[in-house]
Amino acid sequence: MKRLDSFTPIGLLLGILTFSFGVISKNGVSGFLQFIDIPSMIIVFGGLTAAMFISFPPKEMKQIFIVIKQAFSKEEDNLPQLIDLFVRLSDRARREGLLALEAEMEEVDDPFIKKGILLAIDGVESDTIVDIMKAEISAMEERHSKGRSLLERAGEFAPAWGMLGTLIGLILMLEDLNNPATLGPSMAIALTTTLYGSLLANLIFLPLASKLGMKTEKEVFLKQVIIEGVIGVQSGQNPKLLEEKLSAFLSYGEIEERERNAEKEAF
């Protein structure tokens, strides 16, 4: 189940507030007007869009909003509960056989777990099950990598176009050196494009790409645990031994929490 990842909007808001504080700390709210320059915006956003269109085909470009949306959501995952599930499946499989697990799969929402257990029920060998499930993980990583590359490239192009806008502004400024009074304001406008590009890259594109990369790593980790659980169930491993094996994937905090929950259930 997916829900809002509150840290992403909080981080964006904190970044905006930090930038805003820097802007208004000297000249107050009116200082914002100094940072608004339409030609600079057109250069940065127009150049960025052009570079993205050149770099990616239309099919992938259409995915950018879906990719960004993923950075604002997180999967509900509970590794201790996952381990308990496989311990229960292993116990039932040893008592009633693998075919008895078909009924259990109706209550499981995770398609990756279902796929692995159903392959085991169909009598597929463990090596083949591992190959099939690892191939699915590889395909998932490739899909995620392509989506993440959209944000990574945008994070590279935005500062470059900001710098290009600054160069344009400097060239125009140098043409009017006869009027010293215009040098300061002209320089400020020229640097505004670099500011826009850096802000887009370091507050939006690159941080979102980094978050998506961490989400992928976490998902791969969970799927590796699932593979170990499926093979344990398929091979008829003792539920206690399987529990010990899968518990190796738990952090110390999760182990302590699991032990506390077990003590509460015992009482």
Automatic annotation (TrEMBL):
Pfam families: MotA_ExbB
Ranges where the MotA/TolQ/ExbB proton channel domain occurs: 106-220
Gene Ontology annotations of biological process type: bacterial-type flagellum-dependent swarming motility; chemotaxis
Domain of life: Bacteria
Gene: motP
Organism the protein comes from: Fervidibacillus halotolerans
One term under GO cellular component: plasma membrane
The protein, known as: Flagellar motor protein MotP
Keyword Transmembrane attributed: yes
Stored NCBIfam families: PRK06926.1
Major localization class: membrane
TM ranges: 32-56, 154-174, 186-208
Topology of this chain in the membrane: Multi-pass membrane protein
Similarity annotation: Belongs to the MotA family.
Protein localization: Cell membrane
Keywords: Cell membrane, Cell projection, Cilium, Flagellum, Membrane, Transmembrane, Transmembrane helix, Transport
